[in-house]
Amino acid sequence: MKKTTLNNINYNSKTLAIAPSVGSIDAYIYWVNQIPILTATEELELATRFHRDGDIDAARQLVLSHLRFVVHVAKNYLGYGLSKADLIQEGSIGLMKAVKRFDPKMGVRLVSFAVHWIKAEIHEFVLRNWRIVKIATTKAQRKLFFNLRRATKKLNWFSNEEISHIAQELKVEPKEVRAMEARMNSYDVAFDCHNDDEVEDGRLNPGCYLEADTQNPVDELADLEFNSIKTERLAEVLAKLDQRSREILEARWLKESKATLHELAAKYNISAERVRQIEEGVIKKLKKELSS
User: Which pLDDT does position 252 carry in this prediction?
Assistant: First the structure.
C-alpha cells in the first residue's frame, strides 16, 4: 500500500496567491485545510505503526491530518471571549492526547475517539479563563476593576449616591461602575449539569450550554472533504472552457457586480440572445461534469 505522506503537499501559484498572510491564525487555518484527509486504511496503518512500534512519524501524520477538525470544534466556543488561536491550541493538545491513547483494535475512526479529548481540553481552558474574561475584557475595564476594588473593600451593592461618588473619583460614567459592580458580584457555578429540580433559579450550569450542538464530527469532516473535491472539480471544468465562455460565466455569476446580457453582447460583438445561449450551455456543462 502506498505510504501516506503529509510533507510533500503541492501548491500551485493560484493557491499561493489566495493564501492569507503568513503568521496569522487565518493562515494557519488555511494551510491546515490543505493537509490531506486520511482514508480508513491509511489511518489504521499509521495507528498500528504508532501503537505497536512507537513510530513517532506515524503519530505526527495522524495529528496533522486531523488538525482541520480541531479548528472546527474550536469555532463552537468563540462566544466566551477567548481567542481563536488559544482555543485551537488547547484543542490540538487534546488531539495529541487522543492519538497517544488511541487503540486501532477498537475498530473506530480516530475522529470519533478524539472528539471527546479535544472538547475536554477546550472545556478545561474555557473554565480556567471564563470568570476573568467576563469581569474585564478590555484595558479600560481592567483599570476600572482594580480601581473599584481599591475604592471599596466590600463587594456589596452600592447606592446611587455611592455609585455617583465612585464614578466622580475614578472619572468614569456611572453606568460603567454599575456594570463592573454586577460583574464583581457575580459568582461561579458548578460545571456539571444537574436535574431540573436541582437547578436553582432556573439557571443552567455551564456544562449544559458550553458546547454548541452542530453536525456529527464524522459527517462534518465528510462534508469538508466533499466541498474540497467539488471546488477542485469546478476549477478543472472551468479550465477546459474557451476564454469567451469562461469570461461570460464569470461576468454573469462569479463577479460581485454582474454584467447584463446587452453589456456582454456589445463587448463580444454578438447578440444578447447568443450570450444567453452561451451562458446556458456552460451552466449545463458544469452541472453535468460536477454531477459525475
Answer: 87
C-alpha cell at 191: 460545571
Q: How far apart are CA 124 and CA 115, in angstroms?
A: 14
CA distance 73 to 220: 10
Residue 172 CB partners (closer than 8 Å, separation 6+): 144
Cβ contact 91:122 at 8 Å: yes
pLDDT of residue 68: 92
Residue 55's identity, in one-letter code, is: D
The rounded Cα 85 to chain-centroid distance in angstroms is: 10
State the CB neighbour count (10 A cutoff) for residue 213: 6
Considering the chain, what percentage of its residues have pLDDT values greater than 90? 20
Q: Which residues of 9-25 are buried (b: 16+ CB within 10 A; e: fewer)?
A: eeeeeeeeeeeeeeeee
Please report, in angstroms and rounded to a whole number, the separation of the first and last CA atoms in the chain: 27
For the question of whether the overall pTM of this predicted structure is more than 0.70, the answer is no
| One-letter amino acid of 229 | I
Spatial distance between the Cα atoms of 259 and 261, rounded to a whole number of angstroms:
7
Crossing angle for the helix pair 67-74 and 56-65, to the nearest 10 degrees: 40
Give the burial string for 149-162 (b: 16+ CB within 10 Å, else e).
eeeeeeeeebeeee
